[in-house]
Amino acid sequence: ILNVEQSPQSLHVQEGDSTNFTCSFPSSNFYALHWYRWETAKSPEALFVMTLNGDEKKKGRISATLNTKEGYSYLYIKGSQPEDSATYLCAFLRGSQGNLIFGKGTKLSVKP
Amino acid sequence: DAGITQSPRHKVTETGTPVTLRCHQTENHRYMYWYRQDPGHGLRLIHYSYGVKDTDKGEVSDGYSVSRSKTEDFLLTLESATSSQTSVYFCAISLPGPGLALSKSYNEQFFGPGTRLTVL
Fold first, then answer.
1. CB neighbours (10 Å) of residue A22?
2. What are the backbone dihedrals phi and psi of residue A82, each rounded to the nearest 5 degrees, phi first?
3. Any chain A CB within 8 A of the CB of B1?
4. Is B76:B63 a contact under the CB 8 Å cutoff?
5. CA B79 to CA A57: how far, in whole Å?
6. Spatial CA neighbour of B46 closest among B31, B61, B63
7. Which among B106, B115, B116 is the top mutation candidate for probing chain A, defined by the most A β-carbons within 10 Å of its own β-carbon?
8. How far apart, in whole angstroms, are the C-alpha atoms of residue A75 and residue A9?
9. Rounded to an integer, what distance in angstroms lies between the CA atom of residue A106 and that of residue B14?
10. B38, burial (CB in 10 Å: exposed 0-12, middle 13-18, buried 19+)
11. Is B3 on the interface with A (CB under 8 A)?
12. Closest CA to B107 of A96, A90, A25, A88
């Protein structure tokens, strides 16, 4: 059984705070690591697909890093805004023909 | 916009009745997925399809069946609904479009709007 762990489970920050959370995944037979953003009452939307050890991706104030050797990825949000409030999911892809294994997500709440 | 719709969007049914959820896509994508989302569990894969009449089981397939007779439609059937199947169901498709290998897309997924199913 493959486990994808995300921490923390939830996070409450003030507007303007920077924050980060972690996704841990099996380091063997790594193929890709995905981050999705999931707003309440909407569908998950892809943020990043990361494939190489040492990858860093950025989209606006959100960035992510990847360490495939030790099996973790960090998602960073700089200067959090209320519209960043969402659940952030990571998903692990083992092998080119595998299916995504999702973590349980980190729920971020940003107070104005 | 991957052109994914789900129907119905909300349904309340009774234990023991069959229920069919429909996922429809307009972009001719080969790979389609059904997930369920429950508090404390995140997204869990029920079934998936890699082409017309080609389907396979996911992590939580017991009590569910699927069919894909046309590229654009992927149906999820609860053969005899139980209260434990109360959930939000998401359909997804993955890049790339027709003619390209799945491995080239790293399986990035686009999700439908979800169906909220309540089994009483």
1. 15
2. -55, -35
3. no
4. no
5. 43
6. B61
7. B106
8. 14
9. 33
10. middle
11. no
12. A96
| Structure letter (DSSP) for residue B15 | T
Neighbours of A27 (CB within 10 A): 13
Residue numbers in A near B112 (CB within 8 A): 43
CA B65 and chain centroid, separation: 10
Taking the C-alpha atoms of residue B120 and residue B117, their distance in angstroms, rounded to an integer, is: 10
Region B81-106: mean pLDDT is 78
Minimal CA separation from B39 to chain A, in Å? 9
Structure tokens belonging to residue A50: 């990361």
Q: Tell me the per-residue pLDDT of B1-52, one tens digit each, with 9 for 90 and over.
A: 568 999 999 999 999 999 999 999 998 888 899 999 998 888 999 999 988 9
Residue B90 near chain A (CB below 8 Å): yes
Structure confidence by residue, pLDDT tens digits, A3-15 = 899 999 999 999 9
Q: Which residues from chain B sit within 8 angstroms of residue A91, using beta carbons?
A: 43
Q: Confirm if A45 and A51 have CB atoms less than 8 A apart.
A: no
The per-residue pLDDT for A44 is 94
Strand-strand pairing, B64-70 and A100-102: unpaired
Minimal Cβ distance to B107: which of A93, A103, A105: A93
